Each structure stands twice: as structure tokens, then as C-alpha cells.
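Below is a typical protein record.
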Amino acid sequence: MTELYVPEREDLWFRLLLLGDPATMGYNRGCGLESPTYHNDTGCIDFPEEAWADWHARWVGAEPARFYAYLRLRETGDFLGEVNLFQTEGPGVYEMGIVLHSAQRGKGYSREGLRLLLGHAFGALGAKRVTNCFEPGREAALRIHQAAGFQVEKEENGLLHLAVSRETYTF
């Protein structure tokens, strides 16, 4: 059984592992992000320990503007990936993110993580709408999002833009 776990600062070693793993971050390769910590050739993002305190202060405990958690196996405490929400177009409208460690993909954890994240968004945060965007070639991600009630609103600049509302959420 998976659960959302809000990490302590000392747990950010796992985020360092995620962001530094080319197999996990391959979806991010070639995106041309304008950040000095981004590696266009691998998709990886540097996350040095000296940045952890500021990052943690910005993302953890910042509800309702932001929410960040790990996906964790309840039985073992093992971390599987990360999820986040942040307000974009004003109160009640959030963009989401989900990254599963490459070794944990194909086991149903993405679907469960999306269910938990949207449950938190529409429950605790009172979200009206949640959006996400990614490349059309990410077929598994598209299937999981559509199963949750997301609908493709547009395709622009090589990205699918999807959204789900409290009324269309189906998990």
C-alpha cells in the first residue's frame, strides 16, 4: 500500500537520488530548461545539499500555495517517487507533478500516486481544477491521467495540456 509522506529535510537525499538519475529523469532530456542546475543531455537536475534548507522551506508546509510529498510504501517505508501541486491561476487551480523512480515504474505506483495526489488536491486543498502537461509520446502517463478523469485540452509546443476538475475526477 502506498501513502503520501511529507519529507523532513534529512529525507531530501531521496530527491537528490531522483533528480540525479538519468533513467528516472530521461523524460526531461532535451527540454532546454533555463536553469544552471539542469543538464540538457540527461534531463538531470543538480540538487546539492547546501540548497536543501531553502528548497524545503519553500515547498514543505506551504499549503495551500504548494504541496510536496514522497510516495512511500507503507509497509517498508521505502520511497518510490515524488508528487507536487502548486497554484497557478489563482485559488483552487493547481498544476501537478509526479516522478516515479525508474526502478519502480510498471508496478502500478504511478496510478496509485496520482489517486493519492488528486485526493489530497480535491480534499484537503479544496482544489477546483488540476492541470498537467507532458509530451504526447508518454502513452502510459496519458492513460493513467485519462483514467483519473483528465481530458486533453490542447496540444501546443510539443506538449499535451490536460486538466481534471472535482466534478470529472474518477479515481
Notes: The two ends are 16 Å apart (CA to CA).
